[in-house]
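Changelog note: in this version the structure field was regenerated for every chain. One regenerated record is shown below for reference.
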Amino acid sequence: MGTRYDHLTLDERKLIFQLREAKMSVPRIAERLGRHRSTIHREIRRNWHDDGPWLRGYFPQAAQSRTDRRRIRRRKLHQDPDLAQYVIARLQQAWSPEQIAGRLRRETDGTGRISHETIYQFVYSPHGREQNLYQLLPCQRRRRRKRYARKPRGVTIPLENTFAERPTEIAARSSFGHWEGDLVMFRRTHGQRNVFSLVERQTRFAVLTAQPSRHSKPIMNSLAEDLGGLPPEARRTVTFDRGTEFAAYPALKTSLGMDAYFCAPQAPWQKGTVENTNGRLRRFLPLDADISDRNTADLRTLAAQMNATPRKCLGFMTPAEAFAASLRSCGVSSAGPGP
């Protein structure tokens, strides 16, 4: 008893009403709800309804309405219409709540400061819902997910496959055969098709493959097909982010003998080589491009163009030249991966 500090819910208020109607004492009601008896005493006292001799007592819906009104009066954006209008105007300019709160800290002497959490609460309050303010948020969720209870995303990664366990030689680019993979996505209005990009870290050699969806197994199959013709020295490891599209990574160990490593949560920059390559690829395939008529052969042509472009980081060699030189050092004369 006395260990809960969250607000009473409407269901709890209904139960209080029912138990009072059954003539149960306040201490026993508190015990049923797992609350301190002073919480129940205070709830009944603060939300007691008195509308003459014919309508007097504790009513759960009225208690909930009173509580909601008190909370609204305490909220800063409901107390300050000018500040609320400022927030709404910035939301309409596609600012995020965090950007709005951060900018206010720079622009004001402290009187207009609010937290991004206050803005979210304002957006999802009855007043904010009336104006459909949620549509101005980056994710545009009609209902807010519970704080601190976000659904886990991405792949569950064993410790030995985390980025922290990746050998230092990979980060140093001191050895050949270490790859990075990622999906290049496009607007959903064009369907589920995407491009799987694969880049060798040392030589920046890129392989592009058309994918019909984000399903993991076909993506891993295409990777195995692309790199299967290379010697083991040219396909040692691959690094992904934690997207579910890479959940079938254990198959790479079986088919190719490759180890897979994964970036830390929310840290795609740790696979910077493929991120940089994807940025270059956007010049040819922007976000709003319709790739429904692009097949893997078309993408191979595009990859060949990118691999034939000199790179400063390679001493102005092309990725194709650097990759061919590395293959020769492995005793292979093949021009590169792929069918």
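Spot check on this record: The radius of gyration is 29 Å. The chain has three domains: 10-70, 75-136, 162-329.
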